[in-house]
Every structure is written in structure tokens, then in C-alpha cells.
DNA sequence: CGCGTTTGACCGGCGC
DNA sequence: GCGCCGGTCAAACGCG
């Protein structure tokens, strides 16, 4: 397989279905264990599957406008990519490795990716589900707020949680919505969390759980809930930046997770990039992701992302580059 | 005993 | 003003 072919598969995966008409090449359906929607055969080992755009949309977990904005497709899109939507985009990156190798992404969590029709429920339910999601998406899509929050990301919890003045809205950390298919509610992400609350969700039989990072003075929180319409779908919303290194190795990996430099919006980038790099490194044959033997040049990796995704990376480019670089360097160690 | 979870109470924002 | 709802607190509890 040529490098160009690899690139095309990666490229196409991001923009299949709704997005494919916007980009020149059509995906080759059903390559190596994954169907045209990035779904894997039932025989595939249990995994948590990061949804394709199609799944996201069909599951009403993401609104089109948000995704359009995230990919810079909207004519009204500004230079600022909404954090949440951008992460929705990069979230799909986790499937890059499954696409590039034809194998499903492996995570500690158990779930099969089933057919794309499973999310199709009654339309009213879908609509309500979408409305709920839109509320969340709206919260995350206040660019000026997100930018402002980035600037105060290292604030202490006390400073952060309390309004500066009476009557002034409490500033929120940028939120990152993270949609996964999993039987497990609390996905292992390398950080330690303490549950501090649980609330019943309106119109849903599934409660929403609230977690806080257990590290001292770390302001990061996350909410975990299931889509009532599709219980297999877990919505994890992260808020804030970690102010410390990742304390836990992932999936029994023998090498430590790279220290998150300035830990921006999402350590999920670390997770995803780690898996992507691992997959790419372990895949047979050459590719165009700057892989030289057992080495991936992060610059080349990024350059080979589709332009709109490169744009997404800009927000965290420094982070991403560092992460990839760290991971690659560690992998090179004997 | 320390750490994490559970769960009811509380608070603030928001819509009517 | 009132009620609803999301989010948080904190005491009680469980577990290793």
C-alpha cells in the first residue's frame, strides 16, 4: 500500500458521508474490518468505539452547525474554532489508527461498534436528545468566553469557581464534549477522578455523574452521562485544564504518559494521539505520516492531516506536537 | 485510617 | 416571585 493510499484513507475517514462531498476523494468502503462508517465487524474484539461523524450526527450528539464550524466549513466561521466542536473533530482522530491499519481502536472499555442504524430511534426521541445536546453544545461554543477561560486556566479553584463580582456570571472553563460508545460509564483516561455528585437528568433514565480531578488544586471536572436514546453512548464533558502530569499509565502500558505540556483543553488529545501514534508505529509498511522505521515525525504527521484538521490543530498545535514528539521519543527507547 | 462513593440539601441562574 | 433545573456541597457510608 502506498503512502498516498494511507493518506487518502485517513483523509476520507474524517470526512466520510456528510463531509465527503466537501472533499475530493471518496472513501473505499469496508476496508479491512471496518465498514464505510468506520464500524467494525461484530467479530471484532470488544472495544470502546469513538464514533464517526455519521454516528455522532445520527445519534444527535452533535449538531451540524457545530461540526461545520469546527471544520471551518461554515461561511460564517471565524478564525476561532469552538473548543468543543474542535474536540469533536479531534475525537475522531482516535479512529485514525483503526482506519490506517484496519483494526479497531483498543481501549480498556468494552463495547462493540454496531451498525449505523442502531442509533435510529423514534424521531421525537432523537429530537429531544438533540435538544439536550444542543444545550450543552451552546455552552461550549462561546468563543470569546473560551478564549478568556484559556487565559485564566491556571487559576486556583477558589478564584475560578467564585464570581469576581456579585452579579457577574461565573466564568466557565472551556468544555470539551467527548462522545464514546461504551458499556462503561467512567472511561479510563489516565487521570484520577473523584465523584462529587450525581443528578438525575431530565428526560433521561440515566443519571449524570460529576467528577473532579483528585490532584490538589487541579480544577478539571468532568460530567459523564448516557444518551437516554442510545444507552451505549456515553457523553463525557471535560471542563478545565489539568495543572499536573498524568498520574496513571494507560492500558498497562509500560511507558509513562508524556507530561502534558501546559495541558490545554484536552488530555484526550494525549490519549488519542498516543493511540494514533502507537497504531501507526505498529502498523506494517510505510506511510506518509513521517514514519521512518519506528519513528514518526510529528510535523509530518500533522502536515498529512487534511487542511481543515490542521486548522483544528492550531489551537493545540504546540501541545499536540509536544505530545506526539514525547510519545515517539519514548517509543524509541529500548 | 484514608480515600472514594452515595445522596439529600443547598444555591444560583433562568424562564414564565 | 416562583418553580424548575443544573451544579455543588458535605455528611454518612463503604472499602481496602
Automatic annotation (TrEMBL):
> What is the protein name for this chain?
WRKY domain-containing protein
| Domain named WRKY: residues | 182-247
For this chain, one GO molecular function annotation is: DNA-binding transcription factor activity
Polar residues composition-biased segments? 99-118
InterPro entries recorded: WRKY_dom, WRKY_plant
For bias type Basic and acidic residues, the affected ranges are: 124-162
State the SMART domains in the record: WRKY
Q: Where is this region: Disordered?
A: 99-174
